[in-house]
Amino acid sequence: MSAGAEAVVIGASAGAVDALSAVLPALPKGYPLPVMVVVHLPPDKKSVMAELFRGKCAVDVREADDKEPLTGGTVYFAPPDYHLLVEPDRRLSLSSEEQVHFSRPSVDVLFESAADAFGPGLVGVVLTGANADGARGLRAVLAAGGTGLVQTPTTAAAAAMPLAALAAHPAARALTLDQIAAHLRELGGTS
């Protein structure tokens, strides 16, 4: 599989808190990979995602800052109303460009920019959600030689995002949340 994993990107929407609660707290202290997460959020409210998961996780959890260099063992949440991107030098950047799938932040935008930066070292994970955001981005991850994981649609609170991702990319692996968590631990050499 992707023994040379260098980074993980995760996208989720409706049902995200429960899904991420099964995945992120499973990452152990000392987990070597940076993890970037886009959750569709209301643009006009402060996000509590980083705060919420900081208390549940052994890894560092924060809201992403513009031009911040990526660090292993850290989960970066996209802030509300900003796209989260990875620059070619593997720094994060924030953008207020047009919405994608009626969303900013957009899963596709993160996945596509991270695929350009990390190529075959990227692991893309599409979780529960009620639209098709993430399907195009997962195509970019797989086209760059990366790994695609998708929450089994029957286990998702909202199956549209996983279904769209799997329909567009039969090469992606459909896994339960526990299997995704175990796979991410394994990729980080911490199974």
Automatic annotation (TrEMBL):
Enzyme class: hydrolase
InterPro entries associated with the record: CheB_C, Sig_transdc_resp-reg_Me-estase
GO BP: any one term: chemotaxis
GO CC terms in record: cytoplasm
Taxonomic superkingdom: Bacteria
Active-site feature positions: 13, 40, 133
Catalytic activity, as annotated: [protein]-L-glutamate 5-O-methyl ester + H2O = L-glutamyl-[protein] + methanol + H(+)
Domain CheB-type methylesterase intervals: 1-184
Swiss-Prot/TrEMBL keywords: Chemotaxis, Hydrolase
GO MF term set: phosphorelay response regulator activity; protein-glutamate methylesterase activity
E.C. number: 3.1.1.61
Gene3D superfamilies linked: Methylesterase CheB, C-terminal domain (3.40.50.180)
Name of protein: protein-glutamate methylesterase
UniProt lineage: Bacteria, Pseudomonadati, Planctomycetota, Planctomycetia, Gemmatales
